[in-house]
Design brief:
The strands form 3 sheets. The chain has a 5-stranded parallel beta sheet, with helices on both faces. The protein has a 4-stranded antiparallel beta sheet with strand order 6-7-8-9, covered by helices on one side. Strands 10-12-11 form a 3-stranded antiparallel beta sheet. Strand 4 (about 75-80), helix 4 (about 85-95) and strand 5 (about 100) form a beta-alpha-beta unit. The chain is about 40% helix and about 25% strand. The chain is an alpha/beta fold and about 240 residues long. It contains 8 helices and 12 strands. It folds into 2 domains: about 1-125, 3-Layer(aba) Sandwich (Rossmann fold); about 125-225, Orthogonal Bundle (Arc Repressor Mutant, subunit A). The chain binds calcium ion. The site of calcium ion (CA) has 5 residues, from loops.
């Protein structure tokens, strides 16, 4: 975690650096905008830039704009004069992510840095929306409507798939035969509950090592069935 700190006042630079370092951040410092741009090019692992607005020479807004253009994913926090509402607006227009008004407390700045860092890291790695149900050692691929075990497909009928999905989504919870019948065959199915048992038996033959002593698809006597999850399935 590396921060680029651009601030012409040494005393502010010092206390910001000390506080960031205490929180485990590496800090590279620049006194002028030109220096900051050079540093950014030289140190590609900078994640957040803290930029003072009022600087001799190139001001913080310009630095911000240039950094933003070159490094779209860099986090940028502007240090603005508290009284200058205009500075906040300007900073955001130049592509800053946040601003802290001067004078600020170290805690305030650190909180902003941390919040921004969290935002950046969660944006950098979008959660992969894997549409599958983990029924270790099986995986139910919901989009493809397939059950696989170690990349081997276990061929299921649509009803068998629906039963495993229902029980798997409610793992370790007993589901009654009635519930299974309604969920899988529909509310208006006219027929016997035994069709549930028949399908369960077929599934067991496909997935259980010993269908007579199921490790996954358990019978809940007098009630229904249960998918057993997170238990050891040695040998399966
Ligand atoms: Ca200044």
């Amino acid at each position: 975690m590396k921060v680029l700190l651009l601030e012409d006042e040494k005393s502010i630079r010092d206390f910001v650096r000390i506080n960031l370092k205490r929180e485990g951040w590496a800090v590279v410092e620049a006194e002028t905008g030109e220096e900051a741009l050079e540093l950014a090019d030289r140190e590609p692992d900078i994640e957040i830039a803290i930029l003072d607005v009022m600087l001799p020479g190139m001001d913080g807004f310009e630095v911000c704009g240039r950094l933003r253009q070159k490094y779209p994913r860099l986090g940028i926090i502007m240090l603005t004069a508290k009284s200058q509402e205009r500075d906040k607006v300007m900073g955001l227009e130049f592509g800053a992510d946040d601003y802290v008004g001067k004078p600020f407390s170290p805690a305030e700045l650190l909180a902003r840095v941390k919040a921004l860092y969290r935002r950046l890291s969660s944006a950098a790695v979008p959660p992969v929306e894997k549409n599958e149900l983990d029924l270790s050692p099986f995986t139910l691929l919901l989009d493809e409507r397939k059950l696989v075990k170690q990349d081997q497909e276990i061929v299921l009928t649509p009803k068998e798939f629906a039963i495993i999905k229902l029980l798997g989504e409610n793992a370790n919870k007993a589901i009654s035969r009635d519930e299974i019948l309604t969920a899988v065959w529909g509310q208006f199915f006219i027929g016997d509950l035994k069709i549930v048992d028949v399908n369960i038996r077929r599934i067991r033959q496909k997935i259980e090592r010993d269908p007579a002593h199921p490790a996954f698809l358990e019978t809940v006597w007098g009630y229904g069935y249960l998918w057993r999850k997170d238990v050891s399935h040695e040998g399966n």
